[in-house]
Amino acid sequence: MLELRPTDRFPSLTEAITAVRDGREPKPALPGVSLDRRTPLDAENLQQGTRVGTDYEIVARLGQGGMAVVYAARHLVSGRTRALKIARSENAAEEALQGEYQTLSRLDHPNVVRVIDLTKMVEGRLTLVMERVGGETLRQWLATHPTPEATAQRRLAEDLLAGLDYLEQQSVTHKDLKPDNLLVCDGRLTIIDFSLAGIPEDAPYGGTALYRDPASARWTHATDRFAAALCLFELYAGRHAFDGHVPEPGQTPTVREDDIDPPGLAAFFRKALDPVPEKRFPSARAMRDALLVALGDESAAAPPRSRRSAWSRRPRFVPPGFLDGRSMLSLAAASTPWASFWRSIRRTFDRSTPSAPRPHPTSSTFRRPCAARALRRQRRLRGWAPRRRSWPIWWTRPSRSKSCHCPRRCELR
Fold first, then answer.
1. Mind telling me the catalytic residues?
2. Cα–Cα distance, 369 to 364 (Å, whole number)
């Protein structure tokens, strides 16, 4: 159209318009072959093999919730399988996913799922990239293991309470603990789905009614411990503590000793699920210790050992008598003018103590050189400090010149 020679231009306006249309929408070079335009992805129904972004390929659909859909995707660069949690096209769902990312980004525990990134690889959808834990949920694991081994039950219970204790230390409340949010893989348990961790404590919504504490209107660590106790009861008893009904305020759970193995766990669950919150365990660590005691582990009930250093716990030789050897040497060194002599004997006695470990140079018991003595020596080398005399100050000889009171007493004059 813009050629200089008229013969090189389009002969008519119709041909020019046709050329412009062909440039905008090119026709296929081969007859019978259609050019498919890129259609937007349907985040609700991604099929296997679908490319998401530039680095991920969908492997399978893991599940969905009220705010997001979760897929297993293979990272094409590293070859690892990860979990993609795609939020629904709602503002509340995106805010929940952002809150989950902010919560998980500051957590690092083997029993808590790890987050990798927060992107928008799906058009118009917020996507959370997480570690792919694998395995199955606790509910599915209980269905496939109707009579689990005692060691497996104890390991899963300790993992749940260890992760809950870590969340309490980090001041994080999960607000939706239930068997569907606990994954079991290779005999280990991992807590997932922190989408409600960012909601306020006084929010009237959230959680699952079957696992919510009826005695509390706020979301606290006590509500998480109540939900964890219900999950542990299903792990050991194989049923819901309230027979599948929503717990009511003041309702006592049906805990029978013949349903739980070992029977000593009945008292543990009665206390953990007590309708009065003040009568329950004060922390997840206290729950773990009480669980181990109920399982027969006496080491958990032993009082904690005092934190004394190895130097204070060293074996000492105490001869028969009123005072031990070190006390007698200390008394002698303090009551005689031969202090340096007795100090050398005491050091020899300390070195001869059987199996006495040498203290670390940074410990308080290590004998460092006297700082005052080093400072006096430094001043003496500079030439403006008096030399320390071996006799006491009251034995000092009078100066040569009574009119001069300088520190050097005019010895060089």
1. 176
2. 13
Is 136 within 8 Å of 184 (Cβ atoms)? yes
Residue 159's closest CA among 91, 240, 228, 205? 228
Is 314:354 a contact under the CB 8 Å cutoff?
no
User: 85 and 182: one domain?
Assistant: no
Res 170 pLDDT > 90:
yes
Tell whether 207 and 158 lie within a shared domain.
yes
| Bond from prior residue into 337 cis (ω within 30 degrees of 0) | no
Q: Is 206 left (phi over 0), alpha (psi -120 to 50) or beta?
A: left
CATH of the domain at 248: 1.10.510.10
Instruction: Give me the half-sphere count of Cα atoms (radius 13 Å) on the Cβ side of residue 163.
Output: 28
Residues 195 and 98: beta-carbon distance below 8 Å: no
Range of the domain at 76: 51-131
What 3-state DSSP class applies to 73?
strand
pTM for the whole structure: 0.64
d(CA 330, CA 389): 26
C-beta separation of 318 from 324 below 8 A = yes
Residue located via tokens 């390991």: 155
Shared-domain flag, residues 181 and 283: yes
Q: How does pLDDT run across 176-232, given as a tens digit for each residue? A: 999 999 999 999 999 999 989 988 888 888 789 999 999 988 899 999 999 999 999
What is the distance between the alpha carbons of residues 274 and 250, in angstroms, rounded to a whole number? 9
Distances (CA, A) of 338 to 347, 352, 383, 388, 413: 15, 22, 31, 19, 37
The gap between the terminal CA atoms of the chain, to the nearest Å, is 113
Are 165 and 248 in a shared domain? yes
Tokens of 251: 């309702």
Q: What is the CATH number of the domain that holds 121?
A: 3.30.200.20
What does the alpha-carbon distance between residue 330 and residue 307 come to, in Å, rounded to a whole number? 27
Q: Give residue for tokens 């430094």.
A: 378
Kindly list the distances between the CA atom of residue 47 and the CA atoms of 42, 67, 131, 254, 279, in Å, as whole numbers in the listed order: 9, 20, 21, 45, 51
Place of tokens 């897929």: 71
Which two tokens mark 313?
């716990």
* Selected residue with higher pLDDT from 246 and 385: 246
Q: What 3-state class would DSSP assign to 57?
A: strand
DSSP 389-401: PSS-GGGPPPPS-
